[in-house]
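Objective 1b. Sequence-to-structure analysis of Universal stress protein.
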Amino acid sequence: MARSILVPHDGSSHAQAALEYALETFPDASIVLFHAIDPFEVTPTEEQLSPLTNAWLADQESEAADLFAEAKASLEGGDASIETATAVGSPAQSIVAHAEDADADQIVMGSRGRGGAAGLQMGSTAEIVVKRANVPVTVVR
């Protein structure tokens, strides 16, 4: 029976390392590359949250598609079959919910995301996912 592995990706090097680890460790598994679209994320160039419109969502989904394409293009061999999925919500909650909804057998994720402080062993999203997921979680550094 093929396993289903959920790999959250935010564009960070830790997330890319988790994707590579999942592909190497579970070569026969179905890999689902997942991105949580955080409606409350404010970038340093923004002074306030963007309005949550259909246009905003389309832009976010387009950025996620670009992130997925870049993550896949960075893989050696590049012939792995990888599904993609997105959800709108807080990253940790979206990851845990998608793992449950998709009947994932395991989550493989990076230890820190884009905003993680260098001295931390594990970022807050990874910590919450480890505590709340109903499936095994592998945290890759």
